[in-house]
Amino acid sequence: MISLDLGKLDEIKKKLKLNEPDGEWEERVRLTPEEIAEREAAVHIKVEQEKARLRREELAAERAAQAAEEDAEKKRIEKEKKAKKARQSKEERRLRESYNDLPPDLMRVADGLIRRAAFMRVTLEDYEQDLSENGYVEMFTQSANAPPYERERPVARLYGTMNKNYQSIIKQLADLVPPAPVLPKVQEKDEFEKLLAKKKEGNG
Q1: Cβ neighbours of residue 96 under 8 Å, at least 6 residues apart?
Q2: Predicted TM-score (pTM) of this structure
Q3: Which of 24, 36, 74, 122 has a CB 3.0–4.6 Å from the CB of 20, allowing a cystine?
Q4: Can you give the pLDDT at residue 179?
């Protein structure tokens, strides 16, 4: 056993710069090295257990925050889908107003074209907004060591391709509309001759 008289305790505590309460220090100096090691090991285990508990809580909080973000993102995407579907339906109604008088066989053809045209127009509007906000080009690099250069943004290429397809579908729809009846041309010469004949009759 380690035994020290109380007169030397203050000197040892000052030398080691210990801030433990007197009761705890006096208890420690009476312990064997093995008992001190056991106590320190127990304290170390408790510290590690507390660290593990705090880490579990931290991970749980991170998972909860991530789940909340994913849920918010899903709701945002779903809201955008519904809004786009509503815009598309509105455009379909607008186009169908021009084709109400088509025969049933032509209307079946027009219906598919109308749905595709409505989808393309709404998508093109979204692309236009993106291009207006972010531009047609972006900086791109092949690797960390290669210098960046400007390249066309993918959405710009998509916009160009879809716009051509949209114009093609609109032309197909326009071709389904029967041509307006040709009005007979007014024969200006005949009308002039009739006018002269009326004047002659009046003079006669």
Answers
A1: 114
A2: 0.58
A3: 24
A4: 73
